[in-house]
Structures are given as C-alpha cells and as structure tokens.
Amino acid sequence: MHRIEFLDLAAFVRVAESQSFQEAAQALHLSQPALSRRLQKLEETLGAKLLERTTRRTWLTEVGKDYLPRARRMLEDYESSLQGIRELKTHQKGTVTIACIPTAAFYFLPSVIRVFNEAYPGIRIRILDVSANEGLERVVSGDADFGINMISAQHPDVSFTPLLRDPFVLAMRSDHPLAALQEVGWHDLQGVRLITVSRDSGNRMLLDSALSGHGIRLNGFYEVQHLSTSLGLVECGLGVAILPRMAMPDAEHENLCSRELPPPHIERTIGLVRRDGEPLSSTAELFIEMLLKRWRE
C-alpha cells in the first residue's frame, strides 16, 4: 500500500476547494495528468473514492466530504511542523481549537484561558461555542482538537473525562412570588409560566428523560433555543426557567435568583471529549493539562 504524501493531500484539498483540476494543477505547479495520478494514488491508499468528475465539473463524494477537514488538518500540522519546529517545541506559537457548549464557554473557560495566555502568550485559542451535538461532531471530524461537552453527547469514536457535575435549578426574578419560598415543589410550578428550551436541546432532553419516569412533564409557555435567551425572558418578568446552575449569573445579581429543585434531582456531567486513538498536538495537550490543574485547584 502506498503511503500518503504531502502532495497527495495538497492535490485533494486544492481540487476540493477550487472544484477545478486546471486551477489546482496550476497552483501546485503540476500537469493535470500528474495531478490525476496523485489523486488516484490517494484514493487507492484510502480505499475509497473521494471525487467525482465530468468534463464540466468536479464534486466531492460523501467520503470526500468527510475526509476533507481531516486532510486540511493533516496539511496544517505538516506545514506547521516544517515552519516552526522550534517554536512549537518551546510553546512559543500554535493554535488550540476547542468545541465547547456555550454555558461552559462563557462561565468556565475564560479563567483558564487567561492563565494559559499569561504563560504562553504566543498560542492562539479558537473557541467553537456550539450545541452539544454539533460540538461532538466537530471533535469527531477533526475541526476541533477536543471538546467540553455533556456526558449525554456520546459517540463511539470519542472518550469522555468527567470534570464537574452541574445541577439544574429554578431561575426567577428576585421579586417573583416563588422567590419568597425557601423550598420549591413541583406543584408550585403549576400555573406559572415556564420558559423552556427546544426539545432537540441536549439540556431539554436530559430534563425530559429525568422527569418522565416520575410522571412530571414540563408545560412550557415560552420556548427558546438558547439558555441565555431564557434568562433574558426571566429577567423581564415573563416567567421562570429550569436550567443548569452554570448558566446562572453571579449570586449577587440584582434581579435574578435561583432555588434548588425538589427530587428527582437533575444534573448534567460536564467533561472533556477527545478522539480515541488520535494523539493531540503538543499545544492542545498543554492546554488540557492546565485546564485539569486549574479545575483541581
């Protein structure tokens, strides 16, 4: 079997991006027959068809679409290793890409990034603040070095390292009638306008699953896509919301407060998600090491 060479990957990425054999051949200073041989060799090595071609156009197969981000990543890693071995070795330069659920990106990551950049000012941090499902796909596809996600977002090609447990609480305005109660029961929510997130949200699915076994249903009056939006509606006095404690603002917020929920107690587990069997870059390993250290403190 042939080994994958740098020019094989470069040829595939150039053709995929330009959708033109002629433009790709010119950019790589190859003849079109030589370019075709490069692509044919890559497909033979992978055992799959990556591109389809007619006299008028070129397009990616489904396998090609899946392989393209991986090929880009391999090219970037190869080029960075040639251009900056010394810088990468001493952690003077580099990039770490993290696929992170929005609540963790807002409330958990900034303090770690601040300390990390003080120690390694030349390393750039790229945060993909996306949903749990999309974050998982970004890690699996190689678009992100690793992810910070919920344990409910699982995939056979990734491993999960728990970091923290994040219980769900009832969020409300400080002047809401329920705020006068030290303990809130599920019956207290009857007749109250409840703000929920959409049913395809990982948080909503976790809530519905935990409550359904106890015959409890969330009867939402408002439905939103993001936890931050639900908090905005709560602050305007439009209702109350059930959301992870991590999504709540500072305890000294002048308008908002929270109460623990009665049994069944519901929580989500937040942790690190990384691809199985694929080593991380030294910069990503360095960031994870500091993240775990900071969290244990």
From TrEMBL:
Database matches in Pfam families: HTH_1 (PF00126), LysR_substrate (PF03466)
Keywords: DNA-binding, Transcription, Transcription regulation
Signal peptide: none
InterPro entries for this protein: HTH-type_LysR_regulators (IPR050950), LysR_HTH_N (IPR000847), LysR_subst-bd (IPR005119), WH-like_DNA-bd_sf (IPR036388), WH_DNA-bd_sf (IPR036390)
MF GO annotations: DNA binding; DNA-binding transcription factor activity
The organism's taxonomic lineage, starting at the top: Bacteria, Pseudomonadati, Pseudomonadota, Gammaproteobacteria, Pseudomonadales
Domain HTH lysR-type: 4-61
Protein's name according to its UniProt entry: LysR family transcriptional regulator YbhD
One GO cellular component term noted in the UniProt record for this chain: cytosol
Membership in a protein family: Belongs to the LysR transcriptional regulatory family.
Superkingdom of the organism of origin: Bacteria
